[in-house]
């Protein structure tokens, strides 16, 4: 009997279409308004003084500022916008100096690409700085700029500083408002975590809490650095943030309690939500709590954590010398500069990415030097955006860039063909600029579609090609994507032989150390820091896996197969924390041999993950007290071992 034919799959694979689905994020209306004003006002001023080219260059600098305007805290905005503008000014200066010099320009832009790629690996601000350094160098080497040489960087810098000025308008009235709102949002995320205990959404909400807590610490610590005695408002915010640590540690114990007994009383998440309101409103005074009497160790842990947080939140003036941060005191500026320099010059990853970017840019510049393509700087611009290291998978970015550019060019074609140049450019730019922050939060393809018509409109103000810009830009984008796929992806085995297994193995080894430290006498502060670091690392591992899921085979399917193990490791950390909390509140401590057995299994799992790319089921024996605090932890470890082990066949 013939077997029935399998139905033909007509839909594209998930790894290819994932980036085309808009992320469910709210529209940042303040950023939308800033972008509209920042990009349209310079054009209006340029037209008014009969210097539209100058207005276009200021708007181009403002576009760079809008792209970098991603921070919430005002002090962080200064770094996120002002520092990249300095690199952008340097880039356009170098590009202007080599404009029209043939192979000298090719060599210069390639060298800038190497430097840009290397510094982009340091951090978020350095990444944007490296991006603007290369982007503006490419623009300066590909478009004629008004002389003398210093005029273009000055105009671009004015545009970036205009964005910075607009973003700082609320600083005198709302100095710590972004930090306070972030801390309050973290409290609300914890309340939602307690509401999710015992439900399938618990893990998802725990990830949201981790992201919110990381953001809050980053915002508060960025301002706090050396202001203990001079900024009591920040000291109080940090104290309120630290008070969340016991609540977070008690959450896994509450989750276990819900599984065994039943739902938590609604008064607990309601009390945490009330604390969030108190943080946001700055309320002080004696807290009023109506909590049920705790009976079991998990309930005692939750009750103690809520009452402690309530005391801290409502305290007007915490002792500034009794406030520590759970991640360590920020290093001095000179220490961070020395670390960054060492990371750039000595890191293998830094050199590897720099060489990949330089190879792609060098090929793009050489190609357009050999082939007479008008205004072909767009090829190198495409390569720069696609190869940016923190935008996601290079392969998916190239595909999404092609889709986004095509969509953006449709809109640009309508504008360039139907709207006359001149004062009509101002209202058009008001609308187009507003789309950039609104669409950027939705995904890379949407950001590309929003930025493309803006750049084309500004380019037309500089070279007056009109509708003739559209099709060449599409061809240039496709050429840039092709160069990136070949020279930036296929030629580098690391692109399609991902190291996600090694990163996960490191996380499992750190989890083993956390299990040992939780029951071997580590002090409470050390456990707090180890746990926070571990959750940050697991968040990074999760991001790496989510990025790998968008890669084509074999990387994407392999990441999908390993994904359950990522979830299992997170649950092991939660189970360890729950066990430690139960011991702290009266449960009998486990035997040292039982702890050592769990640690040994985790270290064997870590070693196995480093030695294979294929997961096989491993059955192990992990005996212990079935009524003890480590019983749930042993179950999670056994579940992880049942998912993965070294394939020794």
Structural notes for this entry:
By secondary structure, the protein is mainly alpha-helical. It is 71% helix and 0% strand. It has helices at residues 14-17, 29-48, 52-68, 74-98, 103-119, 124-142, 151-167, 177-195, 202-224, 232-242, 244-260, 267-281, 297-313, 333-346, 348-370, 377-386, 394-418, 425-440, 444-463, 470-490, 493-496, 500-518, 524-548, 555-584, 592-610, 631-643. Helix 2 (29-48) packs antiparallel against helix 7 and helix 9 packs antiparallel against helix 10. It is globular. Mean pLDDT is 79; it is low at 224-230 and 325-329.
Instruction: Give me the number of helical elements.
Output: 26
| Main sheet attributes: strand count, strand direction, barrel closure | none
Oligomer: single chain
SSE order in H/E notation? HHHHHHHHHHHHHHHHHHHHHHHHHH
Ranges where pLDDT stays below 50 over 5 or more residues in a row are 224-230, 325-329
Which descriptors apply to this entry?
649 residues; mainly alpha; globular
Concise structural overview:
With 649 residues, the chain is mainly alpha-helical. 71% of the residues lie in helices and 0% in strands.
Layout: helices, strands, pairs:
Elements: H1 14-17, H2 29-48, H3 52-68, H4 74-98, H5 103-119, H6 124-142, H7 151-167, H8 177-195, H9 202-224, H10 232-242, H11 244-260, H12 267-281, H13 297-313, H14 333-346, H15 348-370, H16 377-386, H17 394-418, H18 425-440, H19 444-463, H20 470-490, H21 493-496, H22 500-518, H23 524-548, H24 555-584, H25 592-610, H26 631-643
């Amino acid at each position: 009997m013939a077997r029935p034919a399998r139905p033909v799959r007509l839909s594209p694979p998930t790894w290819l279409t994932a980036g085309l689905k808009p992320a469910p994020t709210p529209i940042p209306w303040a950023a939308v308004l800033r972008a509209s004003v920042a990009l349209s006002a310079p054009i209006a001023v340029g037209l008014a003084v009969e210097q539209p080219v100058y207005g276009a260059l200021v708007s181009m600098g403002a576009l760079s500022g809008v792209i970098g305007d991603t921070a919430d805290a005002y002090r962080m905005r200064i770094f996120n916008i002002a520092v990249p503008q300095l690199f952008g000014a340097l880039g356009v200066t170098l590009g202007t100096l080599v404009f029209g010099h043939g192979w000298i320009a090719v060599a210069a832009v390639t060298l800038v690409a190497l430097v840009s790629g290397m510094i982009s690996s340091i951090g978020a601000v350095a990444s944007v700085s490296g991006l603007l350094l290369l982007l503006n160098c490419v623009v300066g080497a590909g478009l004629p700029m008004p002389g003398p040489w210093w005029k273009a960087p000055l105009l671009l810098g004015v545009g970036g500083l205009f964005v910075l000025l607009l973003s700082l308008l609320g600083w005198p009235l709302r100095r710590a408002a972004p930090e306070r709102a972030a801390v309050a949002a973290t409290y609300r995320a914890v309340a939602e975590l307690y509401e999710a205990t015992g439900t399938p959404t618990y893990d998802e909400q725990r990830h949201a809490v981790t992201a919110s807590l990381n953001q809050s610490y980053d915002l508060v610590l960025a301002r706090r650095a050396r202001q203990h005695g001079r900024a009591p408002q920040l000291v109080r915010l940090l104290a309120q943030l630290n008070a969340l640590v016991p609540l977070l540690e008690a959450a896994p114990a509450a989750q276990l309690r819900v599984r065994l007994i039943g739902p938590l009383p609604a008064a607990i998440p309601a009390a945490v939500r009330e604390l969030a309101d108190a943080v946001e409103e700055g309320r002080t005074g004696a807290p009023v709590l109506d909590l049920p009497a705790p009976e079991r160790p998990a309930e005692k842990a939750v009750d103690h954590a809520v009452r402690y947080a309530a005391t801290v939140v409502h305290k007007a003036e915490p002792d500034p010398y009794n406030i520590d941060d759970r991640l360590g005191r920020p290093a001095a500026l000179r220490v961070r500069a020395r670390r960054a320099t060492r990371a750039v010059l000595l890191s293998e990853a830094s050199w590897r990415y720099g060489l990949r970017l330089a190879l792609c840019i060098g090929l793009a510049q050489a190609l357009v030097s050999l082939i007479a393509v008008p205004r072909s700087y767009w090829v190198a611009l495409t390569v720069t955006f696609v190869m940016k290291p923190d935008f996601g998978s290079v392969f998916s970015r190239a595909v999404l860039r092609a889709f986004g550019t095509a969509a953006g060019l449709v809109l640009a074609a309508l504008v360039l063909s139907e709207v006359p140049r001149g004062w009509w450019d101002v209202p058009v730019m008001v609308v187009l600029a507003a789309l950039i922050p609104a669409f950027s939060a939705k995904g890379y393809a949407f950001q590309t579609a929003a930025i493309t018509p803006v750049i084309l409109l500004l380019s037309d103000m500089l070279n007056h090609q009109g509708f003739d810009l559209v099709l060449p830009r599409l061809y240039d984008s496709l050429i840039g994507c092709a160069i990136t796929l070949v020279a930036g992806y296929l030629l580098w085995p690391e692109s399609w032989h991902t190291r996600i297994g090694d990163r996960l193995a490191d996380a499992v080894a750190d989890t083993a150390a956390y299990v040992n430290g939780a029951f071997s006498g580590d002090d409470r502060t050390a456990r707090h820091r180890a746990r926070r670091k571990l959750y940050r690392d697991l968040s990074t591992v999760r991001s790496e896996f989510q990025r790998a899921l968008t890669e084509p085979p074999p990387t994407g399917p392999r990441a999908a197969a390993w994904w359950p193990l990522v979830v299992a490791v997170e649950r092991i950390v939660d189970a360890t924390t729950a066990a430690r909390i139960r011991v702290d509140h009266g449960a009998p401590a486990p035997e040292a041999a039982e702890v050592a057995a769990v640690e040994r299994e985790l270290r064997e799992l870590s070693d196995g993950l480093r030695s294979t790319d294929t997961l096989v089921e491993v059955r192990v024996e992990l005996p212990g007290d079935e009524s003890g605090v480590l019983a749930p932890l042993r179950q999670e470890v056994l579940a992880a071992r049942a998912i993965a082990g070294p394939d020794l066949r």
